Amino acid sequence: MSGDPSAKTPSLTNGPGAAAILAAGIGSLTLAVLAIAADRFPAVKSMLVFYKPTGALSGVTTVAIVIWLAAWGGLEIRWRNRTVALGLVNWLALGMLVLSILLTFPPIADLF
Amino acid sequence: MEITARGLWTLIHGMGFGALYLLACSGALMELFRITAPSAPSNLTRGQEQFLKGYLVAMAVLAWSAVLTGAYVIYPWYRAIPRAGVTDLSGFPQRLLLANSGTAGWHSIGMEWKEHIAWFAPISITMVAYVFIRYGRELSNHKRLRTAVLSFAASSFLAAGVAGFFGAMINKYAPVQGGGTIHLSAGAEK
């Protein structure tokens, strides 16, 4: 038998994993919300033109990536050695991801 | 046999990065599911674990390469606006699609969705790679972490699939062409 007696007892806290998961949801939702805002408000659209040939997409994605990484870093520092309620984190993160996919679908995005 | 410079970049973006990423997704999902299953045998070697870590990092690199070349190399050519009076829209794919009610939807739904949903693939797979690098085989002891990792990996597959499908269809109806011509080989006339 090659079974490791500690195999069923996590030796690492789930905090760092939870931070990465929740941040991915936050980053995705930020991108979807910014895409709608840029489409809806001309002022927001022009503010998000970071690279003219790509248009507002450059700002939408850059800002979303910055917020994703900032959220990840912040949550990582906060949860590094902690065990968090991962059920809630999963629901929030997957909910934000599914919502993001739906919100970027043009027939739904155009409702706003 | 020849290809335009823009056509070559589109090939690198779609076939080189995008399609390879989609192919890699099925392998990653299968291995993540198998290796991190609570009932999986615990005789996974360090080499096998390292291989999957490297595989996931390579997937993240592919996904980021696909969206960055798409947004910053090809998209500007796609959305270029012709000067007034230009009637040949073959060098202006977005305008070409919008000029015909039968193809306008490939832009208004296809490209509009593709240009945003594609970014969920690299965000998701970067998270998946990080979590697997950090936890490795021990992920099987964190049931909920494993559920989230598999869900995000599947979502990244979906996002890349939607982007890839619309990319292929848009390039079929309004290919990104132009730039210099690259001669690949001389064919014999029959």
**Biggest sheet architecture of chain A:** none
Structural class of chain A: mainly alpha
Please write the string of helix (H) and strand (E) elements of chain B.
Answer: EHHHHHHE
The number of helical segments of chain A is: 5
Query: How many separate helices of chain B?
Result: 6
**Uncertain parts of chain B:** none
Main β-sheet, spatial strand arrangement of chain B: 1-2
**How would you sum up the global shape of chain A?**
elongated
C-alpha termini separation of chain A: 60 Å
| Largest pleated sheet of chain B | 2 strands, antiparallel
Radius of gyration of chain A: 18 Å
Count structural domains of chain A.
1
Please tell me how large the radius of gyration of chain B is.
20 Å
- The oligomeric status of these chains comes to heterodimer
Mean pLDDT of chain B: 92
Give the fraction of residues assigned to helices of chain B. Answer: 55-70%
